[in-house]
Design a protein that fits this description.
The complex is a heterodimer.
Chain A: H1 19-26, E1 31-35, E2 41-42, E3 57-61, E4 65-74, H2 80-83, E5 89-96, E6 101-105, E7 119-126, E8 132-138
Chain B: E1 15-22, H1 33-47, E2 57-62, H2 69-76, E3 83-88, H3 96-106, E4 113-120, H4 150-165, H5 169-184, H6 197-202, E5 205-208, E6 210-211, E7 220-229, H7 230-233, E8 241-250, H8 271-283, E9 292-294, H9 300-309, H10 318-323, H11 340-343, H12 350-361, E10 374-379, E11 384-391
Parallel strand pairs in B: 2-3, 2-4, 9-10
Antiparallel strand pairs in B: 1-7, 1-8, 4-7, 5-6, 8-11, 10-11
Helix pairs in contact in B: 1-2, 8-9
Classes of the chains: A mainly beta, B alpha/beta.
Chain lengths: 139, 392
């Protein structure tokens, strides 16, 4: 069994609303839904615009730029066997330049270096044969 | 925040809690959740001076970790359980189920209703441990990044408050220490060992900004209450505790499940900001009239948001409000006089209702707040929640 197949962390299970988003990640493109009616950009994906209710949504590539809206530093791993090697790790709510927020990890700096509004940029990591996750690092 | 609703709870003092019951609170009950639910419910019915045959409704809430209402009705041999309903919900529903019992009675669906929460929260399904590990639905946007547990969820809110207003470890620690002082006086409490600020600060960091003592307990146990009309309550064994007011809700963009807060506008404020106007209007009182407050405390931080949201202090002022001693038992707003979820036990917020009723009946022994006439109970900490105003 390859190391990729041994990946033990939760992997996203795409659904009809989210499949284009995860497909975009596999191509290293961060896609957001854009409302053709009111111009609202949204994440997470939905069948309708959360702002005006329109079903006229298209997918647009985001710039990948954002800033840290809030963050935590996980020091106690849960479940322990799965995350013991990773702690401490940072989970952040990243506010994308296009408006929506996105939960992700901040890589490429120590947890202590993360501050509010810190500029970050998307990077992509293949974790299984099927799944690529959008992660962020200091811009 | 303002109220977007035209209506509010409109049954002031028309319904009452007439019985309360609990089990022991422990880390390993060695019993089924069904058995715990039946014991607490039977105790509440007996406390009211009633028999199971007098009950015709039963309502609870759970995360698929409890015994359903019909199982408890069956165990109690309730001959005609009309309103037997389960809410798939978290602590947000701990007051909602009581309000829904009132609504059911008002609608003629039942006359006298048992409300309960039962769980083997430590030895069985541990809510704090993690959620469904397959990242389906809203979880696909959180769990793949190791954002899995409720402490991890609420820590994200707390950090946002810290960014907005500033927040010191000691300001959170004051909550943990104050509630432990109350638990020391409570024979039912699971944690009765005194806690100092030094103890709090020395507790290990679980998910920064939360230490171990910022996080509530995990408990096996059950709580139940009996609700009926004020008219019927007058002839019963206990002094009725009247439901003056109540509210349930949250703001816009409450999310796709109880964890999801991606689109929530401002994580320094929770549901309480949105229901405050409805709550106070329904009871016809203001925050100054509250003698004792049992505030949902899954985490220390949860209390800060609710003190501000319900108007006990201004935005960003909860840390200093607490540091000034106002939530201590000798302060102007005694909070979680039983020790709360942090130190009494975690019956998913329903133990707050039990404590409020005991305080208003004057049955709280050494932890009794003198002349407590009006109590607040709240339930929930994130995007949706419920609250009640009770009076003796």
């Amino acid at each position: 069994m390859s190391s990729v197949e041994a990946y033990e962390k939760p992997v996203p299970v795409p659904d009809p609303d989210s499949a284009p988003f995860w497909a975009g990640c596999r191509e290293q493109r961060l896609l957001l839904q854009h409302c053709e009616a009111c111009g609202h950009n949204q994440f997470p994906p939905s069948n309708v615009c959360a702002h005006c209710g329109s079903g006229g949504l298209s997918w647009k590539q985001a710039s990948g730029a954002g800033k840290v809206f809030s963050w935590i530093v996980v020091r106690h791993p849960v479940p322990k066997p799965v995350y013991a090697q990773d702690v401490p790790y940072v989970v952040a709510l990243v506010e994308l330049a296009e408006g929506p927020r996105m939960p992700s990890n901040i890589l490429g700096c120590s947890p202590e270096a993360v501050v509010a509004d810190m500029p970050v940029r998307v990077t992509f990591k293949q974790v299984t044969d099927e799944v690529v996750l959008p992660l962020f690092e200091p811009a | 925040m303002g109220s977007a609703r035209k209506s509010a709870y409109a049954l002031k003092d028309k319904y009452a809690i007439v019985g309360i019951g609990t089990t022991d609170y422990s880390a390993n009950s060695g019993r089924t959740v069904r058995a715990l639910a039946i014991e607490a419910s039977a105790n509440a019915i007996a406390d009211a001076g009633l028999k199971p045959a007098d009950i015709d409704g039963i309502v609870s809430y759970n995360f698929n970790d409890s015994a359903p209402a019909i199982a408890v009705a069956t165990g109690l041999d309730i001959p005609n359980a009309g309103y037997a309903v389960d809410f798939l919900a978290g602590g947000n529903a701990a007051n909602l189920i009581v309000l829904s019992a009132v609504a059911a009675i008002e609608a003629g669906l039942a006359d006298t209703v048992v409300c309960y929460r039962a769980m083997n929260g430590r030895s069985g399904f541990r809510l704090g441990g993690g959620r469904e590990f397959r990242a389906l639905g809203p979880t696909q946007y959180t769990a793949p990044f190791g954002w899995i547990t409720y402490p991890q969820a609420m820590a994200m809110w707390c950090r946002r408050y810290q960014i907005e207003y500033g927040l010191t470890p000691e300001q959170l620690g004051n909550v943990a220490v104050t509630l432990r002082e109350n638990a020391v006086l409570n024979p039912r409490a699971m944690q009765r060992k005194p806690m100092s600020m030094e103890d709090y600060l020395a507790s290990r960091m679980i998910v920064d900004p939360f230490r171990l003592f910022d996080i509530c307990l995990e408990t096996d146990g059950a709580c139940a209450v009996v609700v009926t009309s004020a008219e019927r309550a007058r002839d019963m064994k206990q002094k009725p505790v009247y439901i003056m007011g109540g509210a349930y809700g949250g703001g816009p963009q409450q999310g796709d499940d109880l964890f999801d807060c991606i689109r929530w506008p401002d994580h320094s404020k929770n549901y309480s900001h949105y229901i405050a106007d409805d709550l106070w209007r329904s009871a016809g009182i203001t925050p100054k009239d509250v003698d004792v407050a049992e505030i949902y405390d899954c985490f220390t931080y949860s209390i800060l948001m609710q003190l501000e949201g319900l108007g006990f202090c201004g935005l960003g002022e909860a840390g200093s409000f607490i540091a000034d001693g106002h939530i201590r038992r000798d302060g102007k707003l005694p909070v979680n006089t039983h020790g709360g979820l942090l130190s009494e036990g975690y019956i998913h917020g329903f133990n707050h209702v039990i404590e409020a009723v005991e305080q208003l009946r004057g049955q709280s022994g050494p932890r009794q707040i003198a002349d407590a006439e009006i109590a607040l109970t709240t339930a929930g900490a994130m995007t949706c929640g419920s609250a009640m105003i009770l009076r003796r």
